[in-house]
C-alpha cells in the first residue's frame, strides 16, 4: 500500500506500506520500457532464435505505433492526481488510453509464446501461463503506479490481442518478404520515417512522438539487418525447428552470458556514440546549444535524432554483434 501525503508542483511524497508490492510493480513497470526492449529483444536474437526475434520485433513495432497514435487521437486524460499517487513523471504528459505498456507486454509475451510453441518442445500450459503472468504483472503495475485507469489497461491489452489475431495469418508471409524482397531495405527505412514525420500534432509537447520514433527506428535498423544477413551472410543463429527445449537451455550458460554481455556493451556504446554524433550535427545545422531542451523537442530535430540513433542500434544488434560473436568464437 502507498499512502499519499503531499502534492505540490507535480512532486508527490508518499509512504510505502508494502515494499514487496512496491518493488514488484516498479520492476514490472520497467518491463514495458526501453531498458527491457534494449536487453530482451537482442538477447532473444543472440541466444534463442532468429525467427522468434524477427516476429516479436515486427509485432512489437506495429502494435506500439498503433497504440501511441491512438493515444494522441483519442486524447483521454490520465488519472487525476490527487487522489491517485503517481510514481512516475516522465510519461505524465502523455494521454492515457490505451496503455502502451499493456499493449507491449501482451504483444511481446504472446508473440514469443506463439512463435516458440511449434518450434520447441515444452509444456504449452507453462508457456501460456508465463505469457499471461508477464502481461498481467505489467498491466497491474500501471494501476499501482497511478499512470492508468483500469479501462486504459484493459483497452490496451484487448487492442494488442486483436492485432495479434489479425497479424498471425500473415506472419510467415511478412517474414518471408522482409528476408527476400529487394525493396525491403528501402521500405524499412522510408515507411517508418514518413510515419514519424507525419505523427499527429498536439497542442503541447508529449514524449509519444519521440518514443514512437525510437521504436520504429530500432525496428527499421533491425529489419535491414535481417535482410542483409539473409542475403549476404551465413546465418549465425539458424532456426532449429522442433527442438527439445530452448537453445539457451542446451548451450553452455557461460557462452550465453558472454554473448549477452559483449552484445549489450556494443549496443549501448553504439547508442551513446550515435546520440552524441547525430545531436551534435543537428545542433550545428540548426544553430542551437546542445543543452537546449526545447530545440531538441522540435520535430525537425527530434525525429532524425532518434530515428538515426536507434536504427543504428537495431542494425548493430542484428549485424555487427553477431559478426563480433563469430570473431570471438562465441557461437
Automatic annotation (TrEMBL):
Transmembrane segments: 20-45, 57-74, 95-114, 126-144, 151-171, 177-199, 211-228, 248-273, 307-325
Biological process according to GO: regulation of type B pancreatic cell proliferation; sphingosine metabolic process
GO cellular component, one term: endoplasmic reticulum membrane
GO molecular function annotations of the record: sphingosine-1-phosphate phosphatase activity
Keywords per UniProt: Membrane, Transmembrane, Transmembrane helix
Xref: SUPFAM superfamilies: Acid phosphatase/Vanadium-dependent haloperoxidase (SSF48317)
Domain spans labelled Phosphatidic acid phosphatase type 2/haloperoxidase: 53-168
Database matches in InterPro entries: PAP2/HPO, PAP2/HPO_sf
Name of the featured protein: Sphingosine-1-phosphate phosphatase 2
Amino acid at each position: 500500500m502507498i499512502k499519499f501525503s503531499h502534492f505540490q508542483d507535480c512532486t508527490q511524497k508518499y509512504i510505502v506500506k508494502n515494499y514487496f508490492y512496491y518493488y514488484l510493480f516498479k520492476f514490472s513497470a520497467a518491463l514495458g520500457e526501453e531498458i527491457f526492449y534494449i536487453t530482451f529483444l537482442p538477447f532473444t536474437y543472440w541466444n534463442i532464435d532468429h525467427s522468434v526475434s524477427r516476429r516479436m520485433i515486427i509485432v512489437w513495432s506495429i502494435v506500439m505505433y498503433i497504440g501511441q497514435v491512438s493515444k494522441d487521437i483519442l486524447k483521454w486524460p490520465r488519472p487525476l492526481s490527487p487522489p491517485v499517487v503517481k510514481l512516475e513523471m516522465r510519461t505524465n504528459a502523455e494521454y492515457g488510453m490505451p496503455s502502451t505498456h499493456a499493449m507491449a507486454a501482451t504483444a511481446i509475451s504472446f508473440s514469443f509464446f506463439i512463435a516458440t510453441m511449434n518450434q520447441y518442445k515444452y509444456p504449452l500450459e507453462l508457456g501460456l501461463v508465463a505469457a499471461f503472468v508477464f502481461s498481467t504483472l505489467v498491466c497491474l503495475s500501471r494501476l499501482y503506479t497511478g499512470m492508468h485507469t483500469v479501462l486504459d489497461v484493459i483497452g490496451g491489452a484487448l487492442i494488442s490481442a486483436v492485432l495479434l489475431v489479425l497479424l498471425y495469418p500473415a506472419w510467415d508471409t511478412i517474414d518471408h518478404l522482409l528476408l527476400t524482397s529487394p525493396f525491403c531495405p528501402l521500405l524499412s527505412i522510408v515507411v517508418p520515417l514518413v510515419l514519424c514525420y507525419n505523427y499527429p500534432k498536439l497542442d503541447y509537447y508529449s514524449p509519444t512522438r519521440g518514443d514512437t520514433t525510437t521504436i520504429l527506428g530500432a525496428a527499421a535498423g533491425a529489419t535491414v539487418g535481417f535482410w542483409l544477413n539473409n542475403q549476404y551472410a551465413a546465418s549465425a543463429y539458424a532456426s532449429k525447428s522442433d527442438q527439445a527445449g530452448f537453445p539457451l537451455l542446451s548451450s553452455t550458460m557461460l557462452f550465453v552470458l558472454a554473448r549477452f554481455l559483449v552484445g549489450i556493451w556494443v549496443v549501448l556504446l553504439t547508442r551513446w556514440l550515435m546520440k552524441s554524433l547525430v545531436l551534435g550535427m543537428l545542433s550545428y545545422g540548426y544553430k542551437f546549444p546542445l543543452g537546449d531542451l526545447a530545440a531538441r523537442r522540435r520535430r525537425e530535430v527530434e525525429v532524425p535524432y532518434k530515428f538515426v540513433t536507434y536504427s543504428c542500434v537495431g542494425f548493430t544488434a542484428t549485424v555487427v554483434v553477431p559478426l563480433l560473436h563469430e570473431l570471438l568464437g562465441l557461437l
